[in-house]
Amino acid sequence: MFSKFLLSSAAIILALAPAPLLAEPITFKDVTGAEVTLPKPATRIVTLPQPGAATVIAVDGTSEHLVGMNPGSRKAFETGLLKKMFPEAASIESGIVAEGGNGWMPNVEAIAALRPDLVIQWGGRGDELVAPLRNAGIPVALMVGGGNGGTEELARENISLVANILGKPEKARDLFAWRDEVIADVKSTLAAHPAERKPKILHLRSSKGKFTATGEKSYQNFFITLVGGDNVGKGLGVQAEVNAEQIAAWNPDLIMLTAAETDAGRETIFENEVLSQTTAAKTGRVYKTPNGGYVWDSASHESPFTWMWLANLAHPNLFHFDLRAEVKKGFERLYNYSPTEDEIDAVLKLDLNASASNYQQFARK
């Protein structure tokens, strides 16, 4: 009788136990194909790749499982809307890279002190970024960045990795359905207008002090091509430093300036004696790229916004995405957050792009 009581009590305790205590081990492959096994979905995560922190928050719907992030992620957090949406994330530790390292070299002691279930690190960039963590007995899962050839497929693999780590594969499926919907919309519109001229588009990863253009092996090439543009930087590989004379020879119709370079605006083009004479400058088609929960000109969970934004600007006669409505709906989907009109203005950088051609289409009605 007593044993039956014990068994019954145990069953009740198990039934009332929090879900993580009942969770079974999960096994998945990271983006390099390596198998990773965790005793349960990770609840204490450290991310070293810069998009990783924002992706974890978006997939998880909360910042509570992120305990460490790259200083670069911290900068993006401070300059975008994540700080407003998840103010509690301001206390997440960012001193996790080695002093004098290359930006991703882990400070193993600092990371171990955070007691992570898992560290997300870059793969394909040298074993020295990974071995110190594994040697310390810390589980690691690897993303692969656009420096290894940026593609939409790779972007999705990175999102899937985060969803698997958190035990939320359904969130990845939802995000992919959104991406598929926008891609199909863009492609069908272009297919209906096969004679439409392709604008020559330049994306600059840096424009202050030096000009760094992205090439055909970059994620930027994917979305420039997707919206019916011609990437003038094709032939540069992932990216390369170029001079003003080279840009003038390309004579782009439209120039995108990265959102990541927060101290450089449209003046880097208009105040340059050579670049101010390009078609893009003369027609006002120089744009500072928006920044939401993450910068829009890098591969991330927010990329569909970039595609719609650039499609409207590249082909204003063909595309008429209501980007303000899309941002509001998309942020509710990604972050369970409804941005205000002022916040949407800030995301779209309406102040920096106020005088840019066709940019008033994004102003509040």
TrEMBL record:
Signal sequence, start to end: 1-23
Superkingdom to which the source organism belongs: Bacteria
A biological process term (GO) from this entry: cellular response to iron ion
Protein keywords: Signal
Record-linked InterPro entries: ABC_Transporter_SBP, ABC_transptr_periplasmic_BD
Domain called Fe/B12 periplasmic-binding: residue spans: 44-318
PROSITE patterns according to UniProt: FE_B12_PBP (PS50983)
PANTHER family associated with the record: MOLYBDATE-BINDING PROTEIN MOLA, VITAMIN B12-BINDING PROTEIN
Protein name as annotated: Iron complex transport system substrate-binding protein
